[in-house]
Design goal:
This protein has a two-stranded antiparallel sheet with strand order 1-2. It has 19 helices and 2 strands. Strand 1 and strand 2 form a beta hairpin. Its main location: membrane. This is Sodium/proline symporter.
């Protein structure tokens, strides 16, 4: 590895760990500060933190890899995500910020569900916490896989060493600095990703010898078509990724941490501007990378590493180190967010409820730190399957959260008549549908269910139906819940 590249990466690691140390001194004395930053994030930090933790390694590896292979038909994923993120800022962000504070100052998503629906038996809390822990362990492993591929492809290290280095640095600053460290590092990482996703496609495009359309047609005419092999159903499946935003705990928890609901319009403008440019950069990296590889007879064994290959071939070692840091930033920002949300659920929704109800804040922060390490170890274990596709791992977890929590979050914020029974039914039906769609040995015309249509579509639809039907055929919410909803509406309108 070039000295310049190494210097850039070492500086990046030092900055991340320095932010973790700052956050450790600033906001980890109580459980609210450790897990939610004391609800004090400015809109710029919250927006870039949400974007960076959302995009993860798939924006620099997964999506460019899909574009490299299939061409324009993969842009529907980015289109659906942009629309979904905008609706998330519009419908969920301000409402969740207000309601979580009204609902006894809830600091985790299961905590919010339990308080919103008076979950005295903790059924909602337990099921939602289990969904978070199971799907987030899977989701976190996708980031760890990306880290392993990065260190193997770029530095000639073993895949396994890459897993431990990536996870080790993230665990250090997350374990000590908590939510504030995660959010501040996300802000820095989001800025790095933004620059990288502009720089790489622009330089690659400038080095192409022929018009893009000519090269892609020569490579594979199908790459120039907007409708892929799946036809209209394939487009629906790709765009349905946007439905997942409403139920992603590591994203919507950022809305809970903004210092004021009045900051949401600013956060939305910053977040959406960042996301649109980042998504376009990823799309063009894949397309231009495919054209460049074809023109230069460049062998690309793993399409998901095209950003890495272009970074090393086209840039000075110092710049290449910065671009590699961008990939690490994408990977680490998501891993840290997911570790913290999983840790929060283990601490607040299991340990505090079932083991030590009278635990002190100091004890809960300690348990949270231990939980971060445990979830990280589980993710590393799953990531040892080096053949795992980053995009496949992300898509499964994304669908699980989107179907289990998406309709539940939306209805809980928009529909006063929704009750506990409807919430529990919707969560179980959504998660169950996704798992059946992925793993059930059912085929139609020789195709698995998940290859016919993305599992989030049936999961989201059936979950929504379950919420409405079960809520209507069971008792209305109690007077206390109705009063809380009225208080929430009043504060939201104020």
């Amino acid at each position: 590895m070039e000295t310049g590249t190494l210097v850039s990466l070492v500086l990046y690691f030092i900055v991340m760990l320095g932010i973790g140390l700052y956050a450790y001194r600033k906001s980890t004395s109580d459980v609210s500060g450790y897990m939610l930053g004391g609800r004090s994030l400015p809109p710029s930090v919250a927006a870039l933190s949400a974007g960076a933790s959302d995009m993860s390694g798939w924006i620099l590896m997964g999506l460019p890899g899909a574009m490299f292979v299939t061409g324009f038909s993969s842009t529907w994923i980015a289109t659906g995500l942009i629309i979904g993120a905008w609706l998330n800022y519009l419908l969920v962000a301000p409402r969740l910020r207000v309601y979580t504070e009204v609902a006894n100052d809830a600091i985790t998503i299961p905590d919010y569900f339990a308080n919103r629906f008076e979950d005295r038996g903790n059924a909602l809390r337990i099921v939602s916490a289990l969904v978070i822990i199971v799907f987030f362990t899977l989701y976190t492993s996708s980031g760890v896989v990306a880290g392993g591929k990065l260190f193997e492809s770029s530095f000639g290290m073993s895949y396994e060493s890459g897993l431990y280095i990536t996870t080790g640095v993230v665990v250090l600053y997350t374990l000590f600095g908590g939510f504030l460290a995660v959010s501040l590092t996300d802000f820095v990482q989001g800025c790095i990703m933004f620059v990288a996703l502009i720089l790489v496609p622009l330089v690659t495009f400038s080095l192409l010898d022929n018009p893009l359309s000519v090269t892609l047609n020569e490579l594979n005419p199908q790459m120039m078509t907007w409708i892929g092999a799946g036809g209209a159903i394939g487009i629906i499946s790709a765009m349905s990724w946007g439905l997942g935003y409403f139920g992603q705990p590591h994203i919507i928890v950022r809305f809970m941490s903004v210092r004021s609901v009045k900051d949401m319009p600013v956060a939305r403008r910053i977040g959406m501007s960042w996301m649109i440019i980042a998504a376009l950069g990823a799309v063009f990296t894949g397309l231009f990378g495919a054209a460049y590889a074809h023109e230069k007879n460049l062998v690309v064994d793993d399409p998901e590493t095209i950003f890495l290959i272009l970074s090393q071939l086209l840039f000075h070692p110092l710049i290449a180190g910065f671009l590699l840091a961008a990939i690490l930033a994408a990977i680490m920002s998501t891993i840290s967010s997911q570790l913290l949300v999983s840790s929060s659920s283990l601490t607040e929704d299991f340990y505090k409820i079932f083991i030590r109800r009278d635990a002190t804040d100091k004890e809960l922060v300690l348990v949270g730190r231990v939980s971060v390490a445990l979830v990280a170890l589980c993710a590393i274990y799953l990531a040892y399957d080096r053949d795992s596709s980053i995009l496949d791992l992300v898509s499964n977890a994304w669908a699980g959260f989107g179907a289990a929590f998406g309709p539940l979050v939306l209805f809980s914020l928009l529909w006063k008549r929704m009750n506990f029974a409807g919430a529990l039914a919707g969560m179980l039906v959504g998660a169950g549908t996704v798992l059946i769609w992925i793993y059930a040995p059912i085929q139609i015309n020789g195709q698995s269910l998940s290859s016919l249509i993305y599992e989030i579509v049936p999961g989201f639809v059936l979950s929504s139906i379950a919420i409405v039907v079960v809520s209507l055929i069971t008792d209305e919410p109690s007077a206390q819940i109705s009063d809380k909803f009225a208080e929430y509406e009043q504060e939201l309108n104020a």
